[in-house]
Write a structure and sequence with these properties.
The structure holds two protein chains of two kinds.
Chain A: H1 6-9, H2 34-49, E1 56-60, E2 75-78, H3 84-94, E3 99-105, H4 106-112, H5 114-123, E4 128-133, H6 168-173, E5 180-185, H7 189-201, E6 206-211, H8 223-227, E7 232-236, E8 253-255, H9 261-269, E9 274-281, H10 288-291, H11 299-312
Parallel strand pairs in A: 1-2, 1-3, 3-4, 4-6, 5-6, 7-8, 7-9
Antiparallel strand pairs in A: 5-9
Helix pairs in contact in A: 2-7, 4-5
Chain B: E1 4-6, E2 25-29, E3 31-38, H1 44-57, E4 61-67, E5 83-90, E6 101-106, H2 109-117, E7 121-130, H3 139-153, E8 158-162, H4 164-168, H5 179-190, H6 195-205, H7 211-231, E9 234-237, E10 247-251, H8 252-262, E11 267-270, H9 277-286, E12 293-296, H10 300-312, E13 318-321, H11 323-339, E14 343-349, H12 366-371, E15 380-382, H13 387-404, E16 407-413, H14 414-418, E17 420-424, E18 471-473, H15 487-507, E19 519-526, H16 530-542, E20 547-552, E21 554-556, H17 562-566, E22 569-576, H18 597-606, E23 611-614, H19 623-633
Parallel strand pairs in B: 2-9, 3-6, 6-7, 7-8, 11-12, 11-13, 13-14, 14-16, 15-16, 19-20, 19-22, 22-23
Antiparallel strand pairs in B: 1-2, 3-5, 4-5, 10-17, 15-21
Helix pairs in contact in B: 1-5, 1-6, 2-3, 5-7, 8-9, 8-13, 10-11, 16-19
Classes of the chains: A alpha/beta, B alpha/beta.
């Protein structure tokens, strides 16, 4: 979140917010769903950052993960499928002081909402964008999504998913003016939390792909990585995410400077290992709501200006 | 020429180049209609816009209509590429584009043919035609020139050939870039325009260009003016009626943009689409000065989403589009209805379906504006009828959207969008602005949809309000915005969202018929056809027909009292620019007949047998054609 807006996010009254201050309705996801872990990490972040619930907005689309806002006690906007990002951009344009989070699924973000995803990455408004990627359409019951691994059967491609999956990290890194691209996994909670924190503190659009399993339709996704941590490669850097407590469990570490975009693209394209960490972080990229910011006018100023404008058209 | 007060027969035939300063017969007229047509890119539109603006400033009533090809660079010298404007000038107020053109400046004979074939020209029209093509080096061009002259020979036009190219080349290297100003000079002479005002308007039009461009254009205008003075034998005088009210002149899209500013809205989210885009061109130039932003979104859907997000965050925003864009936005509009996020949508209608006629007028999105939405999603639909109303409708729309937490669709059209007309200068009122968003803490017990049972109205809670946290959702929800699928909750939400529309209806006053309160025939119209319909009523009544008209601004909800008004007439029919079957067409019966869209709506709402007369000519309706339709629609004598 931008430092210029921190003053309103700072808790300037005497309230202290605990985890329960952010808890909304009881989450109705399936037991074992990765969404629960993400919700827990997000609540922990909100509490750690002491965000005022009334100055925080979660925007989502449609799908299992898009129920997210209902389970928080902040403001929430549960909209239409694939189109959380335009709504979030509109909120940010009018109310840049609000902390705005976006929660989407893989179908939501990379399929029906792909156009908004690409363009909002480019607009780079100050948003935290979480893509909860379980590689399947769950709410509509087991259809292939763009990130379903090739060969995995579904109700729409029962012989096995036909095409190789879309690589969301490569795609995001290909968008000019994208400023923060990271990948984490629900099954590495400490990394998930550290990544959310880094995303929150970045100024600009922080795109975080969260690898997770659907316990009903894709329980085997990432099973190898869960069993053999050596298949997981941690991208570490002072400007990215480094979680020392994970070093013992995940010995494969690769130093990667998130300002090195070419290297980031190479790493994203090499899918032999699952890479967790920050691929790109460039706080110097233009943020849309800032480059479009205009001086506010009072009603009286506008009246004078509008009369001057009418003079131009006077007969 | 209709409306001539004093007239002397002019000498027919091309002007004689060897008679400078010849005497001029001055025709005094109530009104006159002039067109300037050229290939696309030759500047006929700039010429006509300046001429129209100067005429308005001199106190004439003016209505201008663009003649515009769909392509940016259609082939040169092709009838389909004809580009320009028609300007109807009057002594008093002019409310529509009229019937026939009385004087044409044509840059080549092919664009002239286009207007001739469209039936746009009066049989006695005067034509000022570039003469270079008659003697072109290319034999094919000389050939088609001759064919064109033969095609129009018998009509009775008075053709005056003008050496536009030859004269312009004495000042500029590329006459394509100068002829329009020469033509402007000729018109300035013919219509006795104040040259200082012409030069002022040139300075305004070319304000982004260099001083050299201004100076060259002024010289070209003088060249055309002097040529006309030396070679034409007539001038036209339309004395303006006295008018003390301060006036402004602009087109409908500028009026919508300026109206949006006046309403206090601060975000226009859009995606380029003809003919709506020029609203955003205007706003892009001035909006930031007023604290506003034009956001060009990645697509039509995103434009709706950004506007909804901004509105949700506290300040009503708007999106502008045309038919195909409205189609794309429908899912988001349904969400705005369901979440009761206020939203203003401007739809500048064009010809449909699909891509249809992108640059041409139609009124065929009415039912789409009301109903093109899966699920029951009541919304407000308003149609401005004049350019002045385009200005004021934006504040009305913003206020209704806000007070009723509703989606308000403003239906303009290509005729209003590009038509230019003077109207009384609005007296800007800061009360048109929205109050700043209320960010005070929410009292315990207040709910995000605390519906008043009798009105369905509720006060919204926006982010930043302490204690008001909730999640809005497109899912069926109760007054606390809790997702609930039970029949009771779903039905109640439906009733509350619908009731608001009925409440709005109760606040409207019944419309007043124009011409007479009762009689044989009532014509009902909506949108940009008002001027043409009312002029037709005047003419038909003068000819003895018992006819009146009623013009509706509110289409959803409908204005009250319509059934009672309809009962005072023996027959009711709509006049609209959309498609309807004609009885007698193959397979068409009373039961399967597709009717004009307003007719369909009125029949459903009033159970009155409302007939219709509709056309889809890709241009505004002509009052003369409506008069003829009135004759045809008259109930037979003795028909109760």
């Amino acid at each position: 979140m931008s430092s210029c807006s921190l003053h309103v996010l700072t808790n300037d009254d005497d309230r202290t917010f605990t985890l329960s201050d952010y808890e909304g309705a009881r989450a109705r996801w399936c037991p074992g769903c990765g969404d629960h872990s993400v919700l827990a990490a997000v609540e922990k972040l909100l509490s750690a950052e002491q965000l005022k619930p009334e100055d925080t907005v979660f925007v989502s689309g449609i799908g299992c993960s898009s129920r997210f806002p209902h389970y928080l006690k902040t403001y929430g906007f549960h909209g239409v499928h694939g189109r959380a990002l335009p709504v979030a951009l509109g909120i940010k344009l009018h109310r840049p002081e609000l902390a705005v989070f976006v929660v989407m699924g893989d179908g939501d973000c990379t399929s029906i909402g792909a156009g908004h995803w690409v363009h909002t990455l480019r607009y780079n408004p100050d948003l935290v964008v979480l893509m909860l990627d379980n590689g399947i359409y769950g709410l509509t019951k087991n259809q292939t999504s763009p990130t379903t691994p090739q060969g995995v059967p579904s109700n729409t491609q029962p012989q096995g998913t036909i095409l190789p999956p879309l690589n969301p990290i490569s795609l995001a890194l290909g968008v000019s003016n994208a400023s923060f691209v990271a990948q984490t996994a629900e099954f590495v909670p400490a990394h998930l939390y550290a990544t959310l924190r880094a995303a929150f503190h970045h100024r600009g659009l922080s795109f975080v792909r969260i690898l997770q399993r659907c316990p009903v339709f894709t329980p085997g996704l990432y099973a190898d990585a869960v069993r053999k941590p050596a298949l997981v490669e941690m991208l570490v850097h002072d400007d990215g995410v480094t979680v020392p407590e994970l070093h013992a469990l995940y010995p494969t570490r690769l130093a990667h400077d998130p300002r090195d975009l070419d290297r980031a693209r190479q790493l994203a394209g090499a899918t032999d290992t699952i890479k967790l960490g920050v691929f790109l972080r460039d706080p110097t990229r233009a943020r849309y709501e800032e480059v479009r910011r205009v001086a506010p006018r009072t009603a009286e100023e506008r009246r004078i200006l509008l009369n001057a404008e009418l003079d131009r058209y006077a007969v | 020429m209709r409306g001539i007060v004093t007239v002397a027969n002019h000498v027919a035939g091309p002007a004689d180049a060897a008679s400078p300063g010849r005497p001029h017969t001055v025709h005094r007229m109530r009104e006159h209609t002039v067109e300037v047509v050229s290939d696309s890119g030759e500047g006929a539109q700039k010429c006509s816009q300046i001429f129209g603006a100067v005429s308005a400033k001199m106190g004439n009533g003016v209505w201008t209509v663009e003649i515009i090809p769909a392509e940016i660079q259609p082939p040169a010298r092709a009838p389909e590429g004809a580009s320009g404007n028609r300007i109807r000038l009057g002594a008093g107020q002019v409310t529509n584009w009229g019937d026939d053109t009385n004087l044409v400046v044509a840059f080549n004979e092919q664009v002239l043919l286009a207007r001739h074939r469209a039936g746009a020209l009066a049989r006695d029209a005067t034509i000022l035609l570039e003469d270079k093509w008659a003697t072109d080096d290319d034999a094919d061009i000389r050939d088609v020139w001759l064919q064109a002259m033969q095609e129009i020979a018998d009509v009775g036009y008075r053709v005056v050939t003008v050496p536009m190219e030859e004269r312009c080349l004495t000042l500029v290297d590329d006459a394509r870039k100068g002829k329009n100003m020469f033509a402007l000079g000729m018109l300035a002479f013919i219509y006795q325009r104040n040259l200082d005002l012409v030069f002022e308007q040139i300075a305004h039009t070319f304000r982004k260009k260099s001083d050299a461009v201004y100076a060259r254009n002024v010289d070209l205008v003088r060249l055309g003016y002097d040529w006309a003075g030396a070679h034409l034998d007539f001038r036209i005088e339309i004395t303006p009626e006295p008018n003390d009210r301060p006036m402004v002149v602009m087109n409908g899209n500028e009026a919508i943009g300026m109206g949006a500013i006046a309403s206090g809205m601060e975000l226009c989210a859009m995606y380029p689409i003809t003919p709506a885009t020029s609203v955003s061109h205007y706003l892009s130039e001035v909006f930031e000065r007023f604290g506003g932003v034009v956001h060009q979104a990645e697509d039509e859907i995103a434009a709706a989403g950004v506007a909804i997000g901004a509105s949700y965050a506290g300040k009503v925003a708007f999106t502008i589009t045309s038919g195909p864009g409205l189609a794309l936005k429908t899912e988001f509009l349904g969400l705005a209805v369901m979440t009761e996020v206020p939203l203003v949508v401007v739809n500048v209608q064009r010809g449909g379906p699909s891509t249809g006629l992108p640059t041409k007028v139609e009124q065929s999105d009415l039912l789409a504006a009301l109903f093109a939405q899966p699920g029951d999603a009541p919304r407000v639909v308003i149609a401005p009828a004049t350019i002045e109303e385009c200005f004021h409708v934006m504040t009305t729309a913003r206020r209704i959207a806000e007070a009723f937490r509703a989606v308000v669709i403003v239906l303009s059209d290509a005729n209003l969008a590009t038509g230019v007309q003077p109207f009384p200068r609005p007296e800007v009122d800061t009360r048109w602005h929205a109050e700043p968003a209320d960010l005070s803490a929410v009292l315990a017990g207040r709910k995000p949809y605390g519906w008043d049972e009798s009105t369905g109205l509720s006060r919204r809670i926006v982010p930043g309000q302490r204690g008001g946290m909730h999640t809005v959702t497109g899912l069926s929800h109760d007054e606390g915005s809790k997702v609930a699928y039970s029949a009771g909750v779903h039905g109640r939400g439906m009733a509350m969202r619908s009731r608001k529309i009925a409440v709005l209806s109760s606040l409207l006053t019944p419309p007043t018929p124009y011409g007479a309160d009762e009689g044989d025939l009532l014509i009902v119209g909506w949108g940009s056809t008002k001027g043409a319909i009312e002029e037709a009523v005047d003419r038909a009544r003068a000819a003895g027909l018992s006819v009146a008209s009623l013009h509706l601004r509110f289409l959803s909800p409908m204005e009250p009292g319509l059934t009672a008004i309809f009962q005072r007439f023996r027959r009711v029919a709509t006049v609209e620019i959309n498609y309807s079957d004609t009885m007698g067409d193959p397979y068409v019966t009373e039961e399967n007949r597709r009717r004009g869209q307003l007719s369909w709506l009125l029949r459903a709402q009033t159970l009155v047998d409302v007939d219709c007369w509709t056309r889809v000519p890709g241009e505004p309706l002509r009052p003369g054609a409506i008069v003829q339709a009135m004759h045809d629609l008259m109930p037979p004598r003795g028909d109760a």
